[in-house]
Amino acid sequence: MVSGFNVEYSGVGFAIIFMAEYGFIFFLRYLTVVIFLWNRKILIFEVIIIRIFIILVRGSFPRFRYDKLIYLAWKGILPVILFLLIFVGGIIIYLS
User: Fold this and answer.
1) Can you give the pTM of this predicted structure?
2) How confident is the model at residue 6, as a pLDDT?
3) What separation in angstroms does the CA of 76 have from each of 6, 71, 79, 92?
4) Dihedral sign, CA of 11, 12, 15, 17?
5) pLDDT (tens digit, 9 = 90+) per residue, 50-88?
6) Phi, psi at residue 2, to the nearest 5°?
7) Tell me: the pLDDT tens digits for 11-31?
8) Is residue 14 within 8 Å of 6, Cβ to Cβ?
9) Cβ atoms within 10 A of the Cβ of 33, count?
10) Nearest CA-CA partner of 28 in 47, 41, 9, 42
11) Is 29 exposed, middle or buried (0-12, 13-18, 19+ CB in 10 A)?
């Protein structure tokens, strides 16, 4: 099995997509640390630790196909969320 953009883009095109993807990860991790952990003195160390953790998780777990993710969202998660919404809404209406 191969991923689509690895086949369609070769050489420099793939390198640019790959660098953009990981650059975005680095930016979001830095932004997360700045927003939530801004009062600590070891800011850069925390950014590096969170980056390493995200890269290890992304590299360790397999990527899912989009059709399977859509199936999971529509057939698995959405009915549970709708049930909980109706159930909790009913409890709130009943108690008030």
Assistant:
1) 0.42
2) 58
3) 30, 7, 6, 25
4) negative
5) 778 877 887 787 777 778 888 888 999 999 999 999 999
6) -130, 155
7) 777 778 778 888 888 888 778
8) yes
9) 20
10) 47
11) buried
Query: Which ranges constitute the DSSP H helices of 1-96?
Result: 4-8, 12-36, 43-60, 66-72, 78-95
- CB-based contacts of 81: which residues, under 8 Å, 6+ apart? none
pLDDT at 4: 58
Residue in this structure with the two tokens 């660098």, named with its chain if needed: 19
Cα–Cα distance, 32 to 50 (Å, whole number): 9
Q: Write out the two tokens for 57.
A: 């998780």
